[in-house]
Design brief:
The structure is a single chain. With 304 residues, the protein is of the alpha/beta class. The protein has 2 domains: 195 residues, Rossmann fold (3-Layer(aba) Sandwich), CATH 3.40.50; 77 residues, no CATH class. The chain is built from 10 helices and 11 strands. The strands form 3 sheets. Strands 3-2-1-4-5-6-10 form a 7-stranded parallel β-sheet, sandwiched between helices. Strands 7-9 form a two-stranded parallel sheet. It holds the Pfam family Epimerase. It comes from Kitasatospora purpeofusca. This is NAD-dependent epimerase/dehydratase family protein. InterPro entries: Epimerase_deHydtase, NAD(P)-bd_dom_sf.
Length: 304
Amino acid sequence: MSFHVVTGAGPTGTATALLLAGSGERVRLVTRRGTGPEHPGIERIAADAADADALTALAEGALSLVNCAAPPYHRWLTEFPPLAAGLLTAAERTGAGYVMLGNLYGYGPVDGPLTEDLPAAPTSRKGTLRAALWAEALAAHRAGRARVTEVRASDFLGRGATSLFGFTVVPAVLAGEPVGYPADLDAPHSWSHLGDVAATLVAAARNEASWGRAWHVPSTSEASAREVARRLAAAAGAPEPALTAVPATELARLGDEILAEVEEMAYMYDRPLRLDSTRTEEVLGVAATPFEDVLEEIVRGARS
């Protein structure tokens, strides 16, 4: 029976652990407080993933080490480097395949579809950080010290999705309330369903072809923010959404330290953002969840 270590029990970590356990594999789910879903195949462990010694002991014998943990958004620059260092060190010591959950920040502004082979060209502090973390892991892979891969997702969509859209627009639409969103509301935008993120992470952990390169999560939709809001309202039987575009600078004035971090990423929302996942679909065999199913999941979650 395969054995995997998953770090982080947020929506993606939980979905990943449950997907692995549901297929009959053993999972050690590592979080600071030992939280996570109850399942006979999941062992919940309280530990700090930045502690390389502790994580090494937990990952001995594991087939893969899948990281879904991340510091609070406003503390990325100080807390992500030691977390990433602990994970990479544990992977190097144990031989567990290291699967990183990443995002699109490292590409910087791009006109046209995003493919995994685009060079890193970040224009933000957080983008520079993400690119550096991947470069360090890839260097370890190329030096033969570890097997690493990165799965890159766009904005999360689904029940409990931790994204700006999920925090702000989704609850307002379901409540029939007006809401502002810092984006070109009519620009096509790729959305990553949480279940598809988990499926891509698991597929990458299991496939020898995944190591040493990045993979894009297949998108459940490329609908604009306005269209997603409209279709979500229709699925929920809610009123037509009152969604308006607001400058990202307004978020910084609200006094919320997390929302203040959104301003430097505004370029991701003021133009079309299309994620090409052809390679993931063909090599890893992952397909996107139908968009209507994702909308129904969000509505069911809100009602429960």
